[in-house]
């Protein structure tokens, strides 16, 4: 593995503390970082290196999955971190940063391989990438990469503008756009799961599959993120990125999972053929209060007349020969009855299509993404006592605490230069194109806002969406 400098903008922020440093530390523990590396943290706060390193150690104790008996390793790890306080809106700051980066590279005997991680508000992406280029920070004799957090734009136009800015400083194959759902262990397993099981391959198409249901429900509300969420809503926050990616990852058929170019090209082809039916096949909802739980409009920072959706459901079709006619139902929302991210594949129940109906239930393959990591298969079987047909479920699940977090996988990939599980601009642009009409219809109230009680299953209109196709949510 080539040595590198990891230059983190937003080093004192929440994401750095909760996800980025713990992930880097776990990679370090598992020898997945290069032998020589340095981390440069950039933040607003005036802190000495030592003070910052202590903050990082605290975050490792709080959030790293290795939290006991590794005191010495933590101390060793943070020695590679240098902190600099900078006003990143000022051009002169980038000269200071360049001087520091070069100094650290000399001291650690590093080649000029640089990863810039933008863990900051999207408002700052422009000024940072422009100045990285201007200051010559990106003019390296080694390689350079940039990792960008979501949201990538707020609509099609702002996403295009942002992309122009980023592509002015970095080539497409140097841009690692994070969608943390693509780093989730079970999502990374999807391609392998189908390609490594010959039994499944002939089933993965419109002839055998009746519908696919993707659920990403959350128990939490909007929390302290109202100012962001009021601009986003569930469509931008979850559907444009995570949910569409889950659809693509379920529908791709390539067997060689580590080919970033092929995988991303296949996802682009799928995105091109995806059809969201606006008026009738989209449901939006907002949570209302329940005993002891605030309604969305009462949350701190939310406008009391807010029309923002905290729930979104839709049915979509992929219009290609493999998937045409198979509904992909998606639903996601906040303040629902439980946290659950899963993909349910409902197979056609040909037995019940015959004249003589049986009691057989459809075969279901459920892929549990979060909080469980598991796979289950529902089959029909004869009860040995009653002789009746009943459903049985074969289950696999693991809650091994050593399963890496999404960020760990994604950072390892970015350090290795593997783009497979990062989104290509073409995917992002097409995703915005498909949600743009929905956003506009929400804006003009062409799609009504439904309400659901906090802690419930979501608006009943979401059930109608699936029922009208002759199915129910699993
Ligand atoms: C983020 C959204 O991208 O994903 C949040 O901005 C959401 O609103 C989160 O809560 C859900 O992620 P996970 O990994 O908890 O399912």
Automatic annotation (TrEMBL):
Key words of the record: Carbohydrate metabolism, Glucose metabolism, NADP, Oxidoreductase
Xref: Pfam families: G6PD_C, G6PD_N
Domain of life (superkingdom): Bacteria
Gene Ontology biological process: glucose metabolic process; pentose-phosphate shunt, oxidative branch
One GO molecular-function entry: NADP binding
Cellular compartments per GO CC: cytosol
Reactions that this protein is recorded to catalyse: D-glucose 6-phosphate + NADP(+) = 6-phospho-D-glucono-1,5-lactone + NADPH + H(+)
Domain Glucose-6-phosphate dehydrogenase C-terminal: start-end pairs: 195-474
Enzymatic class: oxidoreductase
InterPro entries assigned to the protein according to its UniProt record, in alphabetical order: G6P_DH, G6P_DH_C, G6P_DH_NAD-bd, NAD(P)-bd_dom_sf
Enzyme Commission identifier(s): 1.1.1.49
Catalytic residue list: 242 (proton acceptor)
This protein's pathway: Carbohydrate degradation; pentose phosphate pathway; D-ribulose 5-phosphate from D-glucose 6-phosphate (oxidative stage): step 1/3
Residues the record lists as binding NADP(+): 10-17, 87-88, 150
Entry similarity comment: Belongs to the glucose-6-phosphate dehydrogenase family.
Function, as annotated: Catalyzes the oxidation of glucose 6-phosphate to 6-phosphogluconolactone.
Entry-linked NCBIfam families: zwf (TIGR00871)
Protein name, UniProt field: Glucose-6-phosphate 1-dehydrogenase
């Amino acid at each position: 593995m080539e040595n590198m400098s990891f230059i983190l903008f937003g080093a004192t922020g929440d994401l750095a503390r909760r996800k980025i440093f713990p992930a880097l530390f776990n990679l370090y523990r598992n020898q997945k970082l290069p032998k020589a590396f340095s981390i440069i943290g950039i933040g607003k706060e005036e802190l000495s290196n030592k003070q910052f390193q202590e903050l990082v150690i605290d975050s490792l104790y709080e959030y790293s999955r290795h939290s006991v008996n590794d005191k010495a390793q933590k101390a060793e790890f943070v020695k590679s971190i240098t902190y600099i306080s900078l006003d990143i809106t000022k051009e002169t700051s980038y000269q200071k940063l360049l001087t520091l980066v070069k100094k650290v590279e000399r001291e650690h005997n590093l080649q000029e391989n640089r990863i810039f991680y933008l863990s900051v508000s999207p408002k700052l992406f422009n000024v940072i990438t422009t100045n990285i280029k201007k200051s010559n920070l990106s003019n390296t004799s080694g390689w350079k990469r940039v990792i960008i957090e979501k949201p990538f734009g707020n609509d099609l136009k702002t996403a295009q503008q942002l992309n122009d800015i980023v592509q002015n400083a970095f080539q497409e194959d140097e841009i690692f756009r994070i969608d943390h759902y693509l780093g989730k262990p079970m999502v990374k397993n999807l391609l392998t799961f189908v390609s490594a099981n010959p039994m499944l391959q002939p089933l993965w198409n419109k002839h055998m599959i009746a519908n696919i249901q993707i659920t990403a429900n959350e128990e939490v509300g909007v929390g302290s993120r109202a100012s962001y969420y009021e601009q986003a809503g569930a469509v931008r926050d979850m559907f444009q990125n995570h949910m569409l990616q889950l659809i693509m990852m379920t529908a791709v058929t390539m067997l060689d999972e580590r080919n970033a170019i092929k995988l991303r090209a296949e996802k682009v082809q799928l995105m091109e053929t995806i059809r969201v039916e606006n008026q009738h096949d989209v449901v939006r909802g907002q949570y209302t209060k329940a005993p002891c739980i605030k309604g969305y409009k009462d949350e701190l920072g939310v406008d009391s007349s807010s029309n923002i959706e905290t729930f979104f459901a839709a049915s979509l079709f992929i219009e290609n020969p493999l998937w045409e006619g198979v509904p992909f139902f998606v639903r996601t929302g906040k303040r629902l009855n439980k946290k659950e991210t899963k993909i349910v594949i409902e197979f056609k129940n040909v037995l019940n299509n015959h004249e003589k109906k049986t009691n057989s239930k459809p075969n279901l393959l459920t892929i549990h993404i979060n909080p469980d990591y598991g796979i289950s298969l529902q089959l029909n079987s004869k009860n040995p006592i009653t002789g009746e047909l009943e459903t049985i479920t074969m289950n696999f699940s693991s809650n091994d605490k050593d399963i890496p977090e999404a960020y760990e996988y994604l950072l390892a990939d970015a350090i290795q230069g593997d783009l497979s599980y990062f989104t290509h601009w073409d995917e992002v642009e097409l995703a915005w194109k498909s949600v743009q009409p929905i956003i506009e219809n929400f804006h003009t109230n062409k799609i009504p806002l439904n309400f659901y009680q906090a802690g419930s299953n979501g608006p009943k209109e979401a059930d109608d969406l699936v029922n009208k196709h002759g199915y129910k949510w699993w």
